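Sequence and structure are no longer studied apart. As an example, we show below a sequence and the tokens encoding its fold:
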Amino acid sequence: MNLRDDRSVSDVLAFVLVFSIIITSVGLVYSVGFSSLSDFQESEQKTNAARAFDAFSTVFDDVQEGRAVARNGEFRLNGGTIQLSQESEFTLEAQDSGGGTLWSDTATTGSLLYTVDGTTIGYENGAAFRRDGDASAMFDEPSFLCQGDRAVVSLVVLSPNNATTQSGDGNVLVKARETRTEVLYSAQGSSSAAESVNLSFSDSAFGDAWGRYLVDNGWSDLGSGEYGCSADTVVVRVTVIDVEIPAPQ
């Protein structure tokens, strides 16, 4: 083999080597980059859903606090499902100094839930949450107070009105309208027989987040899913809100 043949073979080997490197690099970039891009898009979708539910929380607060009789909030499904669940229940009980029951009531508060790719974003009883797997976190707090011998609990009951479950990729307009607001129980000041109010909940998708919030805000963990607030001024009110979720556009 002469010098020219050696150079030809070298050029061919170099071309094959460079071409192989390019093809391998493109394959790696495509597979890794596409996966990373998909993960990023999924993460952004869930973050945007949480922002939307933060806005929903404001919508429901406006209705609950009397700033509006009705409000709407728009939401993009992006392949997920939004629904009004009627499972979560909250029980409240006012007690006297001997632990006797002065008043008690249980409300099925319901939850507005958006589920996509193993993540649930929700609004429940005045608070907004995100749940991934078995872990949940509250990112917008309810209208609860346990401080200085005072306890105020504002329950928000979400009641279904016509369509309450939608799936797909379009935009949905969540409609909220107040139907009733009333004080369920009131005990005022040191002349009151009330010494504490206890709260418990069941069938909530965000139970661990509720527990952390209550303990961090003055409530005592009494065990078995029950929390107590020492107070001689106790106010428990409820707002019932009709919720309708028409078909996506």
